[in-house]
Design a protein that fits this description.
- The complex is a heterodimer of chains A (419) and B (286).
- Chain A is of the alpha+beta class and 419 residues long.
- Chain A is built from eleven helices and 23 strands.
- Chain A has a six-stranded mixed β-sheet with strand order 9-10-11-5-12-13, sandwiched between helices. A five-stranded antiparallel β-sheet of chain A has the order 4-3-6-7-8, with helices on one face. Chain A has a five-stranded antiparallel β-sheet with strand order 16-15-14-17-23.
- The longest helix of chain A has 18 residues.
- With 286 residues, chain B is an all-alpha fold.
- In chain B, helix 4 packs parallel to helix 8 and helix 4 packs antiparallel against helix 10.
- Classes of the chains: A alpha+beta (419), B mainly alpha (286).
- Chains A and B meet through strand 9, helix 3, helix 4 and helix 5 of A and helix 9, helix 10 and helix 13 of B.
Chain lengths: 419, 286
């Protein structure tokens, strides 16, 4: 927590004077430094179109204070979007940062990167190799700051990223995790109003990644700066972000709070990206009770029947879904399905289970990934994957070929549009 | 003999040996004249050559003109190299334009030096549009140090520009992009991010340019035969008095080049160790 108090000193110059407890002198903060006030921050509002040859990104989203993850597969346009917000590549549309226009094509506004007050940490970190760590961090400090103040701020920023006293080190002597934190300190030194991080953890090895992940989240949350973090890794997005934006092929497929977005994909593409794992074709679809929130009766291609809670349906498009089941998919979340040993009886009327046979097991370390071939009336095989803990796996005592039942609890299934 | 020795030493690959032989021949070809000059020549004759006021004058002219040329190329050519490296055209028309500019920079390398001299003589000579103007105002470009510098700069400029351009192009664009987001202007990015990272390549280009200017003969002889530069004076002595008169001067030229390279390299390493990075680190002192 000590670190966070130092953060207040370096990042919250809302008071003009800072009392230095050690020397009793007060340091006057230059009025040129527009203080960042977390309470008045709206964050980023982005609506842009950018083209690269045949590829185009078209996306509108907002980045409020806190951590927003921009999730997408490689080639989705994530990094391009980030660079466009930083002003490093041309784009069309609108970008507002705390009410200030960074880009407004209609008004012919396109602020250059140096005036945007948007911190940018690229995937490579791009530390200046010819400068020491301290000089790297100091690069973003406003010019004209006194030597003593400069030293003090560099020290505070390095302490903030858990690298106190490392100012004299050479950049090439830093480990990946250290380089990442120096790059973050350098970005924070310029007192940005928003932060953009491009795959901040992808250059790190697994154990370092988990440690840095926790620290990164703590530092950014303490700073209160609206942060947009690009990642292709769902686990990373889940661990770091409060909000999630999903981008596929240059188009937004989901946006919202982390829990909401993960739980309620509306399309098969989004569901796949958000870790749902199983996307099954639907043969017939009906809504029981005829009510908006009534249960869904879903028949899969192989004749399997499932009754799902109303919430599993995409209410907004319910009627279109019913009309054309071929445009509907059933998404089943691999982590939320459960598995039991044994045949299902024909009088199993609860109909929240799918019978089948175990046909594959992979020991993925922290969990087991199981594949089940559903019992089917159709000739083609229908596979469902699900995960279970090593303890569950041992308790089940299953072997390949054994008859099993996959149960689908509420929240494990969702009807999505085939798009 | 070779083959027998090979078998005894226990298996050097024949292909590797063939390559080594070819490389050795190339090395020998390059080293032979220089080695012969260094071994066979009377070094004591060099001080005697320094007694010749014409030789000393030629050396002074060469040192001065090569240094001025290198300075001019640095001042104007390095920014050109930087802008060319930054210029990543997307449109077809600008790609074409960049190609034309690049070709223009390479022309002095493509031209025979004599031709470079002739085309400059047309412009800077007493009957040329620019040379005529200056001559009318009492400044004859083609018979002064100015002419020497013009000739040398034209021929030597591509070395610095090409080397600096590739050095700037090798600077990771992400570092320049980050500097911009940290509030740095183009000017500051050039001095504090791009140039320090490209410094080695830029310096190498400047050294090459200096050496090329110092050794330049063809264009200089055509545009500015007087005042004598060392290469022109060596040629004059060679044609007038033969090799015995020219060789001490050749040794002098060699010596001057080696001293110049050493000084440049020392300056460069000193600059990189203590210069730019320290200035950035110290910041603005109160």
């Amino acid at each position: 927590m000590n670190d966070l108090r130092q953060l207040d000193i370096s990042l919250d110059p809302s008071a003009d004077d800072h009392q230095d407890n050690h020397t009793g002198t007060s340091v006057r903060v230059s009025p040129v430094l527009r203080p960042f006030k977390a309470e008045s921050a709206e964050g980023l509002r982005v609506s842009l179109v950018l083209r690269r040859g045949n590829f185009a990104v078209q996306a509108a989203f907002s980045v409020p204070p806190g951590l927003t993850a921009l999730l997408g597969p490689s080639g989705a346009g994530k990094s391009l979007t980030l660079q466009a917000i930083a002003g490093l590549i041309p784009a069309e549309g609108n970008i507002l940062l705390n009410g200030r226009a960074l880009l407004d094509t209609k008004q012919r506004i396109a602020a250059p990167p140096r005036l945007r007050r948007v911190g940018y940490v690229p995937q490579s970190y791009a530390l200046f190799p010819h400068l020491h760590v301290g000089a790297n961090v100091a690069y973003g400090l406003p010019r004209g700051v006194t030597y003593a103040e400069r030293e003090r701020r560099v020290a505070a920023l390095l302490a903030l990223v858990h690298l106190p006293g490392h100012a004299a080190r050479r950049v090439e002597s830093l480990s990946g995790g250290e380089a990442q934190r120096v790059a973050l300190a350098r970005a924070l030194a310029a007192q940005p109003e928003a932060l953009l991080l491009d795959e901040p953890l992808s250059a790190l090895d697994m154990p370092t990644r988990q440690a840095v992940r926790t620290e990164l989240r703590a530092i950014i949350q303490a700073s209160g700066i609206p942060t947009l973090l690009v990642t292709h890794d769902l686990a990373e997005a889940r661990a770091l972000a409060d909000r999630l934006i999903a981008l596929v092929g240059g188009r937004l497929v989901a946006e919202g709070s982390l829990a909401e977005t993960l739980a309620r994909p509306t399309t098969a593409t989004a569901a796949r990206l958000l870790g749902w794992g199983n996307i099954l074709p639907v043969a017939a679809l009906a809504q029981e009770d005829g009510q908006e929130h009534g249960r869904w009766r879903v028949e899969l291609r192989g004749g399997q029947l499932l009754l799902l809670a109303g919430a599993a349906g995409n209410v907004a498009t319910a009627h279109t879904l019913v009309g054309s089941p071929q445009s509907v998919r059933l998404a089943l979340h691999a982590d939320r399905l459960a598995i039991q040993r044994g045949e299902s009886t024909n009088d199993d009327t609860t109909a929240d289970t799918l019978p089948g046979a175990l046909c594959g097991v992979v020991d993925a370390g922290p969990y087991y990934a199981l594949t089940v071939a559903l019992a089917s009336e159709a000739p083609e095989m229908q596979l469902v994957t699900l995960t279970c803990s090593p303890r569950e796996w041992t308790a089940l005592g299953l072997a390949l070929g054994d008859a099993v039942r996959v149960s689908v609890p509420a929240g494990a299934a969702r009807l999505v549009a085939d798009a | 003999m070779q083959a027998m020795r090979l078998r005894r030493s226990g298996g050097i690959e024949p292909g590797r040996l063939a390559l080594a032989l070819l490389a050795l021949l190339a090395l020998l070809y390059l080293a032979l004249p220089l080695g012969y000059l260094l071994l066979a020549e009377p070094w004591p004759s060099v001080p005697a050559a320094l007694g010749d006021p014409l030789a000393v004058g030629a050396l002074e002219t060469s040192l001065a003109s090569a240094t001025i040329s290198a300075a001019l190329v640095t001042l104007f050519g390095v920014p050109l190299a930087y802008l060319l490296a930054q210029w990543r055209p997307l449109a077809r028309a600008s790609m074409l334009l960049k190609g034309v500019v690049t070709l223009l920079i390479y022309t002095p390398l493509v031209f025979p030096a004599v031709v470079s001299g002739i085309v400059q003589l047309l412009v800077y000579g007493p009957y040329g549009p620019i040379g005529g103007f200056f001559a009318a105002h009492g400044w004859e470009l083609d018979t002064t140090l100015t002419g020497v510098v013009l000739a040398q700069t034209f021929v030597a400029a591509p070395f610095a520009i090409v080397a600096a351009q590739s050095a700037f192009a090798a600077v990771p664009t992400a570092t320049e992009a980050v500097a911009a987001t940290l509030g740095a202007s183009r000017w500051r990015i050039f001095w504090t991010v791009s140039l320090p990272q490209a410094g080695g390549g830029v310096l190498a280009g400047i050294i090459l340019t200096w050496l090329r200017a110092f050794g330049e003969f063809g264009a200089t002889a055509v545009l500015a035969y007087h005042p004598y530069t060392l290469p022109v004076y060596i040629y004059v002595q060679l044609t007038g008095l033969g090799t015995p008169a020219a060789l001490p001067l050749a040794l002098l030229a060699l010596l001057a080049s080696i001293v110049a390279i050493s000084v440049a390299l020392l300056l460069g390493s000193g600059l990189r160790l203590s210069g730019v990075s320290k200035r950035e680190e110290q910041g603005t002192r109160p």
